[in-house]
Specification:
By secondary structure, this protein is mainly alpha-helical. It contains 13 helices and no strands. It has one domain. The radius of gyration is 20 Å and the shape is globular. It holds the Pfam family ABC2_membrane_6.
């Protein structure tokens, strides 16, 4: 088991190294995304400023908590864009076109290779800018950052990055079973867009069920924000870890079942 993990880590490092070499061969392709993603980030900030300029509170949260919420969602999304988004996002097309056949013949996990073969360093500035927003929000709330608080917040961010990854893989794995996932992808985009602007603490009833359990994008920035602002609880930890674990099992089940019933286009 240990050898398998080491081999997988070595393979991922090789993939990332090859990706950087490829990008550096085309300098504009390497540096261009820095400018594009940075510009999009600034546009996002202006949109949030326009929405919340004249609003002092959103539900139980003040401006400080909202800034932390925005920074957290942006941070999770930025890491997603850097590490796995562009690889995972191509899964549906590769299944439909039969390109996934090339991955099935390799000795490593097809999902592992798909996830890390399109690393995007152009989104790294978004990670740094998101951290700056978080720092500003922490200052507005007057939060004293201790090593324990920082470690707990980092643990929440990692959990939410994993959850987002699981959700993306689940939705794209449905291509194994249905003709088109376009409508499901639109639902995903709408859910992310909504939960990026509205914190989960204001959801009630059916909306809370939908965005806390069925499409749990509502907890991605909400739970880390609750934790760092001192409103976290053991129940929240149990629920968050339970959701990530449950969706992890569902991800593995759908992917493995889909591969078993997959018929090669070439066949």
């Amino acid at each position: 088991m240990k050898d398998k993990i080491q081999n997988n880590l070595k393979f991922v490092c090789e993939l990332i190294g090859l990706r950087f070499q490829h990008l550096m061969m085309f300098r504009l392709g390497f540096w261009g995304p820095f400018f594009v993603d940075g510009s999009l980030f600034l546009v996002e900030l202006m949109v949030f400023q326009a929405i919340y300029a004249n609003v002092e509170t959103i539900g139980p949260w003040g401006k400080g908590e909202m800034v932390i919420f925005i920074g957290t969602f942006s941070l999770v999304n930025a890491v997603n864009m850097v590490v796995y988004f562009f690889g995972v996002n191509n899964i549906s097309d590769k299944i439909r076109n039969g390109d996934i056949d090339l991955y099935l013949t390799k000795p490593v996990s097809p999902l592992l290779r798909l996830s890390f073969e399109q690393v995007n360093p152009g989104s790294l500035p978004l990670v740094l800018l998101s951290i700056c927003i978080l720092w500003y929000g922490v200052g507005l709330c007057g939060i004293k950052v201790t090593p324990q608080l920082a470690a707990g917040y980092a643990a929440w961010v990692i959990l939410m990055i994993i959850l987002w990854y699981e959700m993306e893989v689940i939705i794209r794995s449905l291509t194994f079973f249905v003709v088109s996932t376009n409508n499901i992808t639109r639902l995903e985009e709408a859910g992310i867009d909504l939960c990026m602007k509205i914190p989960g603490v204001v959801f009630r009833g059916i909306y809370k069920l939908l965005f806390y359990l069925i499409l749990p994008y509502g907890i991605i920035a909400t739970f880390p924000t609750l934790y760092i602002s001192g409103e976290g609880s053991v129940k929240m930890w149990v629920y968050g870890i339970g959701v990530v674990t449950g969706f992890g099992f569902l991800t593995a089940l759908l992917w493995k079942t889909g591969l078993k019933r997959y018929n090669s286009v070439s066949s």
